[in-house]
Amino acid sequence: MSFTAAIIGRPNVGKSTLFNRLVGQRLALVDDLPGVTRDRREGKARLGDIEFRVIDTAGLEDVTDQSLAGRMREQTERAIDDADVVLMVIDARAGVTPMDRHFADLLRRRSVPVLLVANKSEGKGGIAGAYESFELGLGDPIAISAEHGEGLSDLFDALVPYAGEPVDAAEGALADAPSAADGEAVEDDPAKPIQLAIVGRPNVGKSTLINRLLGEDRLLTGPEAGITRDSIAIEWAWRGRPIKLIDTAGLRRKSVIEHKLEKLSVADTLRAIRFAELVVLVVDATQMLEKQDLTIARMIEDEGRSIVLAVNKWDLIENKPAALEKLRDRLQISLPQLQGLTCIPVSGATGAGLDKLMKAGLDAHAVWNRRIPTPKLNRWLAEVQERHPPPLVDGRRLRLRYMTQANTRPPTFALFSSKPGELPDSYRRYLVNLMRETFDMPGTPIRVMLRKGANPYADKD
């Protein structure tokens, strides 16, 4: 990145809309309700032939105490400290407000350069507000419409002095390419960051856990439930392995979700799960494995992501061996499709267990990428049928002819049978569970696709 730009301003002036426009994706939640953004979000922005890091921030409030608004302001001030240039956004249609004047005064006292951006300037309604913003003393306003993409060439001209060498378009496109979707054959690249999503119910300590991993108060935390509203991605590394940590909003039951903003937050979390490679499901040790925890776990399994269970707030449990035994029993009964799921007791407050959690996560990710040789699979299949043959159908024994691994991420196998439609689900589950045990694949989703016909792989192995 050639430089860092922080987008600041009072609530509801279009900061997140501008952020989305600059990064070229709808990463930040946008709504008419003021104060949607709470944590600072970073992204790779591109404007013309310059590439830079951009930080979206919460709306500036004139609060300095330790309330939620005060803690949000602290996060914004840290973003200003990290920035090479600040984009102060005002609402041109609303004109200059007393709060705009207040924060313009604060910015003038800082050494960081400031560009004044008059958003919502499309049409005649924003002209008066754009001219009025000259009184803020931050230089000539840059009139734009983040929603419609107007005025970005003027913003580009203002940012050019802060940029280094221009970025090659093809190189930038390759760097921003998304990770492969489920079903594509992709090998694990140790140099590429692992997409690690932290998910769970509200107030189980997801953001606190990430702050402890990072060693800084990067994310907004507090006793209030539901502080995190949108998924925040943070570049990190653990023992030399690049990790992209993704903090997500808490998932509640559908029946209790009423507001549009929470629906948007849930959709953002589900998207994070869908594109993650590894998911850490955080549960509250004092409210062990509630129904919603199991629902989220099944959702992760349905998406085919590698998964580890983090039992947070373990420092509050008195009888730890009994609690762990109870947890394992519950998992065996309620999540048989994730047999052998790794459970790591942790404490976001003290940092206990976090190294074990990350090691278990990377081990689960390695299993998720594992490929089993076809000859080894078929020797195993022959032994299984000798020991426990498939059931009879119309008086004839089903034949399992051949098996091969069609894909990884998650491990996916093609099983060729004489009558695939007649094979009972119970026998398929038996094969999957035995495969986990034989090939050491605990807790990862495994897909077995039944096929009929000649063996198309006969000449390939």
From TrEMBL:
Q: Any idea which UniProt keywords this protein has? A: GTP-binding, Nucleotide-binding, Repeat, Ribosome biogenesis
The organism encoding this protein is Aliidongia dinghuensis
- Keyword Zinc among UniProt keywords: no
Q: How does it assemble?
A: Associates with the 50S ribosomal subunit.
Enumerate the spans annotated as EngA-type G domain: 3-167, 194-369
GO biological process annotation, one example: ribosome biogenesis
Spell out the molecular function terms from Gene Ontology.
GTP binding
Q: Which residues bind GTP 2?
A: 200-207, 247-251, 312-315
- Tell me which family the UniProt entry assigns to this protein: Belongs to the TRAFAC class TrmE-Era-EngA-EngB-Septin-like GTPase superfamily. EngA (Der) GTPase family.
Tell me the InterPro entries matching this sequence: G_ENGA, GTP-bd, GTPase_Der, KH_dom-like, KH_dom-like_a/b, P-loop_NTPase, Small_GTP-bd
Residues annotated as binding GTP 1 are 9-16, 56-60, 119-122
Q: Which Pfam families match?
A: KH_dom-like, MMR_HSR1
Q: What does this protein do?
A: GTPase that plays an essential role in the late steps of ribosome biogenesis.
Name the UniProt record assigns to this protein: GTPase Der
UniProt entry tagged with the keyword Repeat? yes
Q: List the NCBIfam families hit by this protein, alphabetically.
A: GTPase_EngA, small_GTP
Out of the domains of life, which is the source? Bacteria
Q: Which SUPFAM superfamilies match?
A: P-loop containing nucleoside triphosphate hydrolases
CDD domains for the chain: EngA1, EngA2
